[in-house]
TrEMBL record:
Keyword Cytoplasm recorded: yes
Organism: Keguizhuia sedimenti
Gene: tsaD
Major site of localization recorded for this protein: cytoplasm
Source lineage: Bacteria, Pseudomonadati, Pseudomonadota, Betaproteobacteria, Burkholderiales
CDD domains: ASKHA_NBD_TsaD_bac
Name this protein carries in UniProt: tRNA N6-adenosine threonylcarbamoyltransferase
Cofactor binding description: Binds 1 Fe(2+) ion per subunit.
The keyword Hydrolase is assigned to this record: no
Amino acid sequence: MIVLGVESSCDETGLALYDTQRGLLAHALHSQIAMHEEYGGVVPELASRDHIRRAIPLLQQVLNKSGIDRHAIDVIAYTKGPGLAGALLVGASIACGLGLSLDKPVLGIHHLEGHLLSPLLSGDPPEFPFIALLVSGGHTQLMRVDGVGQYQLLGETLDDAAGEAFDKSAKLLGLGYPGGPAISRMAEFGDPTAYQLPRPMLHSKNLDFSFSGLKTAVLTVVKNQTSNLCEHDKANIARAFVDAIVDVLVAKCLAALKQTGLKRLVIAGGVGANKQLREALNAAAAKRRFRVYYPELEFCTDNGAMIAFAAAMRLQCNPSEASRDYAFNVLPRWPLEDLRISG
């Protein structure tokens, strides 16, 4: 079975072809970072228009790379939610339009399920069950995963997502957009003893997160500087911020593993590419004797491959889940724990 995946939930347009026999055949991605940079964040209307421009050329690109004729596609999957409503509608309309023209069934996929299952695309995939940390610009959640469509929410952020805290703190330091990678790089040159920032909810008796206070603490440090921040100051603040957020994420992951008794941890989402987070988790895994799994770096960001793969896994559980009902709808808000295998 060959599945075409279409991802358009925010500011990346991704298309991919996945074959259940041969694996990932081809994928292509366009990021809108350069377009949104001057605005300091994603502009939804611009994002939607750019998805319209990019999707068909990217489709042709993956068809050319794979050597697959479009009529050989068996199912067309698209991101149904959560995400920006306009951006989701573009991807859904393209997928359903292709499905109608090719007489192929379509399947709407949960964006977070795509991230959650993306480490299974690697050469050393985790087995079920496992704990998953979904950590990105829009989400920070801990899930227990017992199988495809079997997700239990253990904890989530009460305010800002971790990736949002990265980007907004980087903006306070004048590091531009997107700031997550920039603040992570700058932190490598900082003195870990120069500043001490709070670790919100580090010692709470649950698995929830809160990052708005940490972001406010960075703002307070910046405002208390008597002169303009030099690069040395920025590096020290960046180091304090990254250390604080990594400490919280690692501690909550360890607590989830202890609470459930599981020994496998999956990290998914854009912040999963963070160097300091990976180093801290790898060190903890060696000490506590559990396995930690990450997506390939190219699949940490939003991408079509994860959508095609998630669809393939769902269809292996229930082949009738895809349909020729092209009256698509999208769900900008869609809790992952509500997702089940239908049928």
